[in-house]
């Protein structure tokens, strides 16, 4: 019922902008059919989840935004126990890796747009999915250190999930893994790859619908060899390999892909959105927690 043909999808009809801010009626029906969401269940589950979080010693001190909690309810199809467990996993990961949540700024993350290494495409897929677009060969670790790339992922993933459309429809990724092995292979360490695997698959409250791997590289082969055994069978089945970008048109409308990937888009960087989500006010509640201790607060407590 909710499948749409990429060959016939049109901007303004089946194709909607990434930055929408609300859930159209068509996708409200999709949320009901696929995620068991109704207005009453949403209100009741949100209230119950807050009670669970308030009673648990690991989460009782935090103030959560409603849209943050709804992300976990939706990704777990309103299974309360699973949503509660994933929120606690998020809290644990954030406590163990505080450096990737600190000193976030527009000035650093915008480098990924300037270099065309990482971005979110300005239009959604015909089925409403957010599209993350990565060109590994454009990443130069000497000018954009690996720690800054991790912070960029935090911003792109967590802030894009504040969009109701992203919560309901999920994310698709297009990754051009062509790369310079001298630059990149050294970063395929077990700790970095575990952070990617665990953070994206087990912690981040997103529905991952498809991953499209274009081209090939030594760095990707090394990473894939390590990560693949840990991926769920569901995720592995959603990874599609492409010898060239031409076959992406079997999955995505031409209107939403960059020109050098066979599409129509010349300018595809989401500058305006990135400026909005990296204001000090927005970054203060990154991920939807209003009172996470600052770096100075943690120093005083140690």
UniProtKB/TrEMBL annotation:
SMART domains named among the record's database cross-references: CRAL_TRIO_N, SEC14
InterPro entries reported for this sequence: CRAL-TRIO_dom, CRAL-TRIO_dom_sf, CRAL/TRIO_N_dom, CRAL/TRIO_N_dom_sf
Short name of any one Pfam family annotated for the protein: CRAL_TRIO
Domain CRAL-TRIO: 106-269
GO molecular function: phosphatidylinositol bisphosphate binding
GO cellular component term, pick one: membrane
Name of protein: Retinaldehyde-binding protein 1 like protein
Record organism: Argiope bruennichi
